[in-house]
Amino acid sequence: MKKISVFVLLVIFGCKTTKIDDDFKLNFKKVPISAKFENESKSIWGASIVKGDDKLYHMYYSRWDKKLGWAWVTHSEIAHAVSKSPLGPWKHKDVALSIRGANYWDGLCTHNPTVHKYNGKYYLYYMGNTGDGKAMGNKLNPIHRNNQRIGVAIADNPNGPWQRLDNPIIDVSPNPEAMDALMVSNPSITQKPDGTYLMVYKAVGKKKPGIMGGPVVHCVATSNNPSGPFKKYDKPVFLAEGYDFPAEDPFIWYQKGKYRAILKDMHGAFTKEGKALVLFESNDGYDWKLSKNALVSKLEIHWADGNLQKVEHLERPQLYIENGVPKVLL
Question: Is 20 a residue whose pLDDT tops 50?
Answer without folding.
Answer: no
